[in-house]
Amino acid sequence: MQINLRHSCRTQYIGLLNKKLSVEQKQCIQQTPFWWFVLLHERVKISRNLLCELSNVWVESRGGFMINSKFVAFKLLDVCVGLGLRVYGDRIDLQEVDVDSVCRKKFSEKKVTISMVYNYFLTECECLDVEDYCRLYILLGLSEFLLPNRNGTVFVSLFRIVDDLTSLVKYN
């Protein structure tokens, strides 16, 4: 049996925006828990050899890796810490269907996709103040990189969350 491992993630839109960020926009983003989004490029890669080796020593029944006859547990907490995410706080309800949000009102369509958010940047960039730019930028990063879905739509609850930049730290 041959196993194919995905060792890269496309961060096309956030990577393109990172090339165009002004100093003020970058400073606003860097004051949030998602400061590291500005470090993303159009493609994030993990070493294919390392990923292949780790998949070979993974022990599903125990939830970790067997390395040199020692077991190393690997939990969700490890992933969060590795990505610099909070490990406690309010959960994000991705099942919400309607929210009252300033960011959501920028889009008239019922379903908003990540490409629509990116296109909004291209057409409305000059009209956005720094904080609105930061909100939509984080919305794009969350939707494209951290919480993507197959059809490319933005989870409605994320609009409410990015409205208040100072409360971003309270979410897990």
Q: What is the spatial order of strands in the main beta sheet?
A: 3-4-5
- As a percent range, the share of helical residues equals 25-40%
- Which class do the helix and strand fractions yield? mainly alpha
Our measurement of the CA-to-CA distance between the termini, rounded to an integer number of angstroms, reads: 37 Å
**Strand percent estimate:** 5-15%
Number of helices: 7
**Which word captures the global form?**
globular
Radius of gyration of CA atoms, rounded to a whole number: 18 Å
Order of helices and strands: EHHEHEEEHHHH
Number of strands: 5
3D structure, described in words:
This protein has 172 residues and is mainly alpha-helical. It has one domain (8-170). It is built from 7 helices and 5 strands; from the N terminus they run βααβαβββαααα. The chain has helices spanning 12-18, 23-30, 48-56, 76-83, 114-124, 130-146, 156-163, and strands at residues 8-10, 43-45, 58-59, 64-67, 70-73. The chain has a 3-stranded antiparallel β-sheet. A two-stranded antiparallel ribbon has the order 1-2. A hairpin with a 4-residue loop joins strand 3 (58-59) and strand 4. Helix 2 (23-30) crosses helix 6 and helix 5 (114-124) packs antiparallel against helix 6 (130-146). It is globular.
List the keywords.
single chain, 172 residues, mainly alpha, three-stranded antiparallel sheet
